[in-house]
Amino acid sequence: MDKKLAQKLIAKTREDYNKVAAHFSSSRYAFNWPRVIGAIKNLEIKSGSRVLDLGCGNGRAVNLLKSFNIDYVGLDISEELTKIAQKKYPKDEFIVSNLLDTPFSDNKFDYVISLATLHHIPSEEQRLNALKEINRILKPNGTVLITVWYFWGDAEFKKLILEKSITTDDL
After folding, report:
1. Less Cβ crowding at N or C end of the chain, within 10 Å?
2. What is the model's pTM?
3. What element of type H or E holds 143?
4. Are 44 and 74 in contact (CB under 8 A)?
5. 33 three-class SS
C-alpha cells in the first residue's frame, strides 16, 4: 500500500474516533468478551508487573486488570478517548500516541495487550512495524495478547463490508 495513503487512513481513523468518542465510550462501558476475559485470566499476570494496553480506547480493560495489582499504562491514538479514560481512571496513566512509534524505552513492559486494534493499521508493512515496536518495548520473556476482528468468516459481515465498501477516491 502506498505510504501516503496508509498515513491518510491512520489520520482518518484518529479523526473518526475523536468524533465518535463519547458515543463509542458509552456503548463500551463494560467488558463483555468472554474469550478476552478468559485469555487475560490465563496470562497469570504477576503483581507489580508493568502492563501496556495498546489501543486502550476509553480504558475499559482497566476493570479486567484491577485485581492484578499492576502498573497500568494505556495508549491510544484518539485524544478524546484518552481524555475519557483518564477521567474515568485518574490513578492510571493514559498516553496519546501512535502504536507505530511509541514513546517508551526498550524492554519496558512485562505484558502488552492489544485488543481489537491492529486491524486499524491499513498496510501489511505497518502492521509488521507495529509488531516490531511491541517486541522492542516488551521485556525479554514478556507476554503479548493481541486480538483482531475477523469479519470474513461471518457471511453477514462479509456481505455488509462488500455492500458498504469505499474506494480510495472516497477518502
Report:
1. C
2. 0.82
3. strand 138-147
4. no
5. coil
Backbone phi and psi for residue 34, each to the nearest 5 degrees, phi listed first: -55, -40
DSSP structure string for 48-100: T-EEEEET-TTTTTHHHHGGG--EEEEEES-HHHHHHHHHH-TTSEEEE--TT
For residue 165 the three cell numbers come to: 465498501
DSSP string, 117-137: -GGGS-SHHHHHHHHHHHHHH
- Neighbour count for residue 53 (Cβ, 10 Å): 28
pLDDT digit of tens for each residue in the chain (171 aa)? 888 998 999 999 999 998 988 888 877 666 567 778 888 888 889 999 999 999 999 998 898 888 889 999 999 999 999 999 999 999 999 999 999 989 999 999 999 999 889 888 988 899 999 999 999 999 999 999 998 766 555 666 555 555 544 444 443
| Cα distance between residue 43 and residue 121, in whole Å | 25
The amino acid present at 97, given as its one-letter code, is S
In terms of Cα–Cα distance, which of 81, 82, 75, 79 is closest to 108? 75
Q: Is the four-CA dihedral 89, 91, 96, 102 of positive or negative sign?
A: negative
Decide: 24 and 78 in contact? Cβ < 8 Å: no
